[in-house]
C-alpha cells in the first residue's frame, strides 16, 4: 500500500529529501508550502543558441527575472544552489513547448533532454513569502497577471511583464512587506507597484491568469494591494519567441534549492 504524503509532511522536509520524493514520482503537487524556509525557483530551459540573448533579457529586466543560477549546456545540475539536484526530474510538474505550442505537462523531462539545453533558475516570490510568514505579516497571494508594463527587449525576447499581487490587511503589514522584500533581490525585491493595479493594466484582480485559489475572494476595502515582478515573465517571452523547444515548470510547481531564505539575501 502506498504511503499517503501530506502537505504538513513536505513542509518539514529538507530540500534534498523533498527532491528525492519528487524524483521518485511520489509528490506531483504544488510546492508553495514545501520545505519550510527554503528558497524556491522558477525554471526556464532553452537551447544554447538562444541562451545568451535570454540571459541578456533577464539582466535587462532584473525585477521580474532575477537570475539565481545557469547550468552549463547539456548539464541538468545547478552547481551554484543545488549541485546534487537534477533539473530533469526534481520538479513535480513541467511544461514542454515546441515552436510556441504546449505539447506535454510531464512529471520529468528526461526524454526531452538534449546536449545543447541550458537551464535558468529564476528567483521566485514564494521564497520571500516564507520571510513574510516568519515576520507574522498578514497577507494573501492572489495570483499572476499580465501587466501593461513592457520589458526591455533582447533579441527575440520581448513583451509585457507578468506580475504577482498580494493583499495586506493593514498599511503596517504592507510597509513591512516592502521592507522585507527589499532584502531579497533575487526573489524580485520590493514591489513594482502599490495600490490599485488597474493603472498597470490589471482589470479584475479576482480573475488572475494563474490563480492560487479559485474562486478568488475580492480584496476588502481596507486591504492594501502590492504588486511584484513575477518569474513567469521570462517564460512568456520565450514562449512568444516560438523557440524550437522550451521547458518550464508548471505554475506552482517550482524547484526547491539548497539555500535557506536568509542565505538568498546575500546572492
Can you tag this structure with a few keywords?
single chain; 267 residues; alpha+beta; PSTPO5379-like fold; 2 domains; 7-stranded antiparallel β-sheet; globular
Describe the structure.
By secondary structure, this protein is α+β, with helices and mostly antiparallel strands. The chain has two domains: 140 residues, 3-Layer(aba) Sandwich (PSTPO5379-like); 107 residues, PSTPO5379-like domain (PSTPO5379-like fold, 2-Layer Sandwich), CATH 3.30.2040.10. The protein has seven helices and twelve strands. The strands form two sheets. Strands 1, 2, 3, 4, 5, 11 and 12 form a seven-stranded antiparallel β-sheet that branches. It has a five-stranded antiparallel β-sheet with strand order 8-10-7-6-9. Strand 3 and strand 4 form a beta hairpin. The chain is globular, with a radius of gyration of 18 Å. The termini are far apart. The model has no long low-confidence stretch (mean pLDDT 94).
Question: How would you summarize the topology of this molecule?
Answer:
Blueprint: H1 7-11, H2 15-23, E1 38-47, H3 48-60, E2 67-70, E3 94-98, E4 101-104, E5 117-123, H4 126-134, E6 139-150, E7 160-168, H5 171-181, E8 193-194, E9 210-211, E10 224-229, H6 233-240, E11 246-249, E12 255-260, H7 261-264
Antiparallel strand pairs: 1-5, 1-11, 1-12, 2-5, 3-4, 3-11, 6-7, 6-9, 7-10, 8-10
